[in-house]
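A favour, since you know our structure tokens better than I do. What I am after is a single protein written out in full by you. Could you add the entry underneath, on a fresh line?


***
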Amino acid sequence: MRHGDKNNNLGRKKAHREALLMNLACQIITHKRIVTTLAKAKALRKYVEPLITKTKKSGSKEEISHNHRIVFSYLNDKAAVKELFTVVAPKIATRPGGYTRIIKLGIRPGDNAEKAMIELVDFNEIYGNSIASATEPAKKTRRSKSTASSKTVAAPAAVEAAPAVEAPVEPTASTEDSNEVTPTAE
């Protein structure tokens, strides 16, 4: 019986499943986004996010090297571990969690499997621009007056930055009447 077993076996034995997730994790760290099936992407998210969290832990040299060893035991790829600690860790240092994003891509024609793209959130240039430019802290309180004044200053700037869209003007009866009145008055 599998009562309460939330692990998706992906139709594989334990060793094969661990090897699959290890390879997928190395590829997402190296390439920052991969396309796979939706079930594998969801399983990969549970596998890789705790590893990314371990890169954020700071402390003594012993703790840091211990985290390197733990992550290496899950990945078994020196290049991926180095990439994770040198490139990925500084970018996600301020993010409290949710390091990956899964985007559904439809079905695969051959076997009708649902495809999905899983990517590291901070490495997407399209969605990440607004997040990277924000320098305010993530947690705000209602009591502070400085955040309220900064919001009032920022709102008009956002309105000015938006391009004005002009609707085409259609001649109305009043404009036609005014055109007719002017020549007769002369």
Remarks:
- Strands lie at 33-37, 100-107, 114-120.
- The longest strand covers residues 100-107.
